[in-house]
Design brief:
This protein is an alpha+beta fold. Helix content is about 50%, strand content about 15%.
Length: about 425
């Protein structure tokens, strides 16, 4: 019977094509506006690494001066000094650890047809690639021994490798990078998580472009690589790279990977003990609380999803509600002219429940048609939004969950809009309709 009502609903769409087209269009526009904004919010606020986000932790200690500080003031810096990062690396706490900071400079291609050009990348430890599950196209990450030996090794992004070497495997070759010869040990496959949770501070931001290369922290320090990112020197510092390393300037991000979610308490205890020890040495005099963030807490703390994005979603759903009100009016008009049909069906023995099912399924057919058109409009809107900026291009695309949401929202909205008209249709009195014929 449901199949019959569905086919009947499809045929009834052709009874009044202008009215049907108007209902489908209104519903599609409302769904498209809602789904487009909801898709962007979904991509921006999703968990980029759900299976281990509770085990990836950011440690924070406050090394700012005490001048002007009042207990309870919020920390306004989200990076670490080199001294603290080096101590955390030496702690051997957790399964893996990595310091991260941006570096930039030039590449001198071996090809005669290419000129020197600028690139930007990251300095990190070998644990970085396993922690954040970076896929590899060729080769592999450098080893712990190469980290300890300050080796000049590099992992290229797929984009940079193809620019320099085409489709060939460049592993084992040497590349003049940042003014020094680096040996290529691997090529990372396309990898740019959304959002870029591993490096939210500085760099290209939460939705920026992927890094072009990766080199060891020790190598970047030894070569005094040009820093590429944000830096806070609240106490000031003397000129020179060594002075930067010895200063309290904060410019390095840090991540721990713990064995399980329970390792968070171990890290918190370590930070508290570390801060107490550093205070004895004359540092960390603010005695501010030491904090630990997992991935989702870090995204929230960095305000990756702003209030304006949430407000946009609410406004879009308000527009959808307005579209529903108009759809209800059109369905009332569509069903009211079929009162005679309902009267005849009731006189022939159809129950109010059967009438209700028929008209509600017909509303769902309208919603399905609106969902197809709404999906096309949503894809078009997302394409236009993505073309407006490089950052929006990263989040302005639809996944399978949002694809299904589009149809569910359209059909659900149509059924909701059809409840009142359907209920009114069920109240038709068969005798009155038969007398009027």
């Amino acid at each position: 019977m449901l199949q019959y009502y569905f086919l009947l609903g499809v045929r009834n769409l052709r009874r009044n094509p202008a009215l049907t087209a108007l209902m489908v269009l209104i519903l599609a526009v409302g769904v498209a506006a809602s789904v487009s904004t909801l898709t962007i919010l979904h991509m921006m606020s999703g968990n980029p690494i759900p299976h281990k986000s509770e085990r990836l932790l950011v440690p924070m200690v406050d090394n700012a001066p005490t001048e002007g500080y009042t207990a309870g003031d919020e920390r306004n810096d989200d990076q670490l000094s080199y001294r603290d990062a080096a101590n955390f690396l030496a702690s051997k706490l957790g399964d893996r650890r990595t310091a991260i900071f941006g570096v930039g400079g030039t590449v001198e291609p071996a090809r005669k047809d290419m000129n020197v050009f600028n690139v930007g990348g990251l300095a990190n430890t070998h644990d970085f690639f396993t922690m954040f599950e970076v896929p590899f196209l060729h080769g592999q990450p450098w080893s712990e021994k190469e980290d300890a030996a300050n080796a000049d090794v590099v992992v290229l992004s797929r984009q940079l490798a193809e620019k320099l070497y085409g489709e060939a495997n460049p592993v084992g070759q040497r590349l003049m990078l940042l003014g020094f010869p680096y040996q290529i040990v691997g090529v990372a496959d396309t990898w740019n998580p959304v959002p870029r949770y591993h490096r939210l501070v500085g760099g290209s931001g939460a939705f920026g472009e992927a890094d072009e290369f990766f080199i060891p922290v020790a190598s970047a320090i030894r070569h005094e690589a040009s820093f590429n990112g944000s830096m806070n020197c609240s106490k000031g510092r003397d000129p020179g790279f060594q002075a930067l390393l010895d200063s309290e300037c904060t410019w390095i991000q840090f991540w721990f990977e713990m064995h399980d979610a329970g390792g968070r308490a171990d890290l918190q205890n370590y930070l508290d003990a570390y801060a107490a020890e550093q205070r004895k040495l004359g540092r960390l005099q603010r005695a501010a609380p030491n904090t630990v963030y997992n991935v989702m807490e870090w995204l929230e703390q960095q305000k990756v999803v702003g209030n304006d994005s949430r407000v946009s979603v609410w406004l879009a759903f308000g527009f959808l509600l307005l579209c529903l009100v108009n759809t209800i009016g059109l369905l009332l008009a569509k069903f009211s002219v079929r009162a005679a049909e309902v009267g005849v069906r009731r006189a022939l023995g159809a129950s109010r429940r059967e009438i209700f099912h028929q008209f509600l399924i017909e509303s769902a057919v309208v919603g399905l048609a609106g969902g197809v058109l709404g999906l096309l409009l949503s894809l078009g809107a997302l394409t236009l939004i993505g073309q407006s900026s490089d950052q929006l291009k990263v989040v302005a695309h639809m996944d399978w969950s949002m694809l299904l949401t589009t149809f569910a929202m359209a059909v659900g909205a149509a059924i909701l809009a059809g409840l009142l008209p359907t209920w009114r249709a069920c109240l038709v009195t068969p005798a009155l309709q038969l007398k009027s014929q």
